[in-house]
Amino acid sequence: MPVPSPVRSRPFSVATALAALLALGAPGCTRGTVYSRSGTLQPTVAGRPAATFTTLEQAKAAFSRSQGAMTATLEDAAWIRLEPDAPGAAKRHPHYFEGLTTFQIQVATDQIVRPTQENYVLEDSTGNRVASTPALFKTDLGEGFGPRVLTEFTVTFQHTLSREMRWIRLTREGVGGGTVTWEFPE
Fold first, then answer.
1. Could you give the CA distance from residue 107 to residue 66 in angstroms, rounded to a whole number?
2. How far apart are CA 128 and CA 136, in angstroms?
3. For every one of its 186 residues, what pLDDT tens digit does the chain have, with 9 covering 90 and above?
4. Alpha carbon distance 121, 47 (integer Å)
5. Where are the domains of the chain?
6. What does the CA dihedral 85, 52, 49, 165 come to, rounded to 10 degrees?
7. What are the CA-CA distances from residue 140 to residues 5, 27, 70, 81, 97 (Å)?
8. Across the strands, what pairs with 103?
9. How far apart are the first and last CA of the chain?
């Protein structure tokens, strides 16, 4: 005699499948915020005005790229000027104001990661290639489904953006990896 199943089946629908994918955390999403995977933007470099955005969230999303577990936001005056406490921006982003290329990075995983033991490589269209490792990181242990461990940190490179660059690429050399690219219009 067959044993009855305690789970009731429901009819399958496209809406059910879409809801399941969203609950699992589709690539390009980190805790509810959708980030660009590609597209062009204009970074603030010498001789070029900062791009104009109306909200901080909109501006940060434009300067953010995601792949796999990693989301990286290129620090830029276009969104830094929209943060609360504008006079304190130089304290919050010291390396950016020194002219270095800096990223705020989030890694969402099921396992705890140690970014200080990972290597991050920055390449640009002019042939420069530099590596860096974050000095500090903060980990938040979340709950629920999908990636539950969110690690946040900043990586700064001995690199300066210029008008001649057409793109930059950031690669995470750690478990799960990730490579993201920012393209700059001429």
1. 10
2. 25
3. 444 333 332 333 333 332 332 233 333 333 334 344 455 677 887 667 677 888 999 999 999 999 999 999 999 998 998 999 888 999 999 999 999 999 999 999 888 888 999 999 999 999 999 999 998 888 888 766 666 788 999 999 999 998 889 999 999 998 888 999 999 877
4. 27
5. 29-183
6. 110
7. 38, 20, 15, 27, 28
8. 74, 155
9. 73
Q: How far apart are CA 104 and CA 93, in angstroms?
A: 10
**Pick from 132, 106, 129, 113: nearest CA to 174:** 113
What is the spatial distance between Cα 26 and Cα 37, in angstroms, rounded to a whole number?
A: 12
pTM score above 0.85: no
Backbone angles phi, psi at 5, to 5 degrees: -80, 135
Sign of CA dihedral 62, 164, 167, 39: positive
- Please tell me the total number of residues recorded for the chain in this structure: 186
Token output for 109:
């995983």
At position 33, the amino acid (one-letter code) is T
Structure tokens, 121: 């490589």
Residue 136: name the closest of 116, 120, 119, 151 by CA. Answer: 116
Rounded to an integer, what distance in angstroms lies between the CA atom of residue 66 and that of residue 108?
A: 11
